[in-house]
Amino acid sequence: MSKLDPPPAISRRTRTVAIPVDLHDRLRIEALQQSIRQKRRISIQDIAERAVKHYLDQSSMSVPE
Fold first, then answer.
1. Domain boundaries defined on the chain
2. Considering the entire predicted model, what is its pTM?
3. Sign of CA dihedral 52, 62, 17, 2
């Protein structure tokens, strides 16, 4: 990767910031498996909703009550 390349976390084409790769891969695999079971296409919204839910679940677990 040269010094002129953009940071890998930001996509120039879609202008979005990527979520961490391990979480992204896990969510995508989970969504694909669910899609295969349900025989339907996966929408980007489905994956985004899962990512937000996972993030909120993780952040709520780390906050002492």
1. 20-62
2. 0.33
3. negative
